[in-house]
Here is the input.
Amino acid sequence: MKKIAFLFSKLFFWGFALFSAFVIPISILSFLEYFFNWDIPFVEIIQRKELNFAVIASVGIEFWLSYSVILMWATFIYYSIYFYVLQSFFKIFMIEKTFEEYSLKKLTFFYKLNFIPIIIGFFGITIRYTMFDMLRFDEPHFFVLLHLIIAFFLYFYQDLIKKGNNIQQENDLTI
Here is the structure.
């Protein structure tokens, strides 16, 4: 089961990294075409309901052209890093000695990495509530809640690894 989890995390990392490596440059080109009126052959700018969209010909990728595309780039880069760290997190379970400093460092980094979307999501929810005076549970809230739950469980696992590391160090010092 450990190897399956590691394999899936590796597949998620490579899948997301390759998808990001494809979508980010294409979206940058469409962003440049839209704002600087460049003519890029495979990008088409269309307008629907007074909103401008970029359509990547023959691929089926379409996104809204505004400065929120920069948030999309940041999200793709973040989740590429996130899945890479998740892959190294699952690798902890496959090594022979789990209660070591290496495992604790990887776990701590993964734990802290989960707080980035929590903080950004909290500010986004607060800004949305103050500007539009509405609060409803939708997809961004789900991701914030998901990362909060993951961070909660990682905190307990991190505490367990710290205690195991202390016991391992005491055991190594005994004669």
